[in-house]
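TICKET: design request
STATUS: open
ATTACHED STRUCTURE:
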């Protein structure tokens, strides 16, 4: 009986930690891969005879879904800036700007009066604006005109926004799979 309670508490903690990792995806960090890591650790240590245990097929499914999410994010980001003629320097500075903008967006999002949603929206928009700014800076540094740099920067903005939204949706699906596997197993 005590062991069953411990397993249920561990399952709840797993889901809460996965939600925290899911939020990291908004910042452009590897939240979906951390979701898999947590599920793997839980699956390894959960006793086989308890309902909350799930097997390697669930972990494999989570990996496939995460790879799909990474591909979605990569495709959205690459199609935008590359289609407009973006450089490697612009892409690197876009990535750095996205990370800085995402972190700044968390703090600026606290002024949006909706708990947690404000920070998430701020991080998402901050990361996208950071991608825009970093891309423009990189392209200007490369010697491109402001108008061309602006086009590439806008493409980086939309690519980051849609790519991150896709990846976050995939992370939500991963958490739903973990919840279902925990309840059904």
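STATUS: resolved
RESOLUTION: sequence designed for all positions
ATTACHED SEQUENCE:
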């Amino acid at each position: 009986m005590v062991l069953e309670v411990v397993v249920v508490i561990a399952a709840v903690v797993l889901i809460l930690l996965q939600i925290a990792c899911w939020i990291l995806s908004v910042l452009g960090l590897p939240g979906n891969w951390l979701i898999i890591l947590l599920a793997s650790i839980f699956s390894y240590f959960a006793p086989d005879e308890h309902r909350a245990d799930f097997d390697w097929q669930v972990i494999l499914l989570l990996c496939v879904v995460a790879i799909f999410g990474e591909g979605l994010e990569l495709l959205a980001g690459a199609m935008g800036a590359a289609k407009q003629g973006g450089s490697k320097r612009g892409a690197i500075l876009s990535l750095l700007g996205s990370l800085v903008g995402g972190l700044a967006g968390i703090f600026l999002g606290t002024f949006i009066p909706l708990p947690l949603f404000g920070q998430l929206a701020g991080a998402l928009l901050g990361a996208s604006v950071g991608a825009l700014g970093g891309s423009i800076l990189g392209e200007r540094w490369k010697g491109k005109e402001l108008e061309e740099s602006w086009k590439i920067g806008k493409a980086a903005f939309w690519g980051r926004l849609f790519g991150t939204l896709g990846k976050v949706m995939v992370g939500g699906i991963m958490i739903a799979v973990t919840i279902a596997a925990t309840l059904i197993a």
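CLOSING REMARK: The longest helix spans residues 146-184. Residues 101 and 126 are 4 Å apart (CA to CA).
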